Amino acid sequence: MEFEELESLRGIPKKIYEEIDENKKINTLLKMSNVMAVGRLGYNDHGKTHAKIVANNAIKMLKILYKKGILPSFMRDCKGTFDDSLTITLLGAYLHDIGNSIHRDIHHLHSSYLALGIVEEILKRHYKEEKAYQLTTEILHAIYSHSEGIMGLTIEAGVVAVADGTDMTKGRSRVPICKKCYDIHSVSAASVEKVEIKEGDEKPIHIEVILSNEAGIFQIQEVLGEKIKWSGIKNYVSVYAKVKKEKPVFEEITI
């Protein structure tokens, strides 16, 4: 997947994206994350494809919020630029799951310390030292707080967490599926056809989920709903679901 194909990444410093996309250590950690998460635990993809989907969706949401007049936290609190916040979001989203290479348990913590050296090395090539360290702490916060149970305290961290939950179309569930079972998890995971992120009217971010059947509601509530709940940006996000076979009317999901 080339840089130009990731529509919402436009505006990101291209050199930074190319560095992480080609970085041997990052690619190896993402590959090993899938060895652990997919091969040993039965989860679906937590590797490079997931990293790019989450980065794309997180940046799309950050841009929507900014367009709606909601300043990213680094701009508000640290007098940073919007490009700085884009960099935080990109690196936080791209590296949030590398800790799965060590273990799924507390993988958000593993991801944080694995990312530290990588992030500092990359940022020091593009920013002055103090700015690089400031950005590093914000990126690590986004990585650490993407898991349920840890409240995101920045807008950038919030969009990373929610974006993580949006990667749930069939075959890409964030919940481990028993391949030999026919239960609510497996049926629900197979029911999510498409997830779209748009500008909303009542709330800035409008997420539409297309389902093949009603069982997909479980996936929305258990995966995306939990991410939104702990993201810190719950008040900015609305979720609507539509069952494909029915009339094209969306039903709002209460998170």
TrEMBL record:
Q: Which domain of life is it from?
A: Archaea
What the entry lists under Pfam families is as follows: HD
Provide the HD domain boundaries.
Answer: 47-169
Name it: Metal dependent phosphohydrolase
Q: Please tell me the species this chain comes from.
A: Methanocaldococcus vulcanius (strain ATCC 700851 / DSM 12094 / M7)
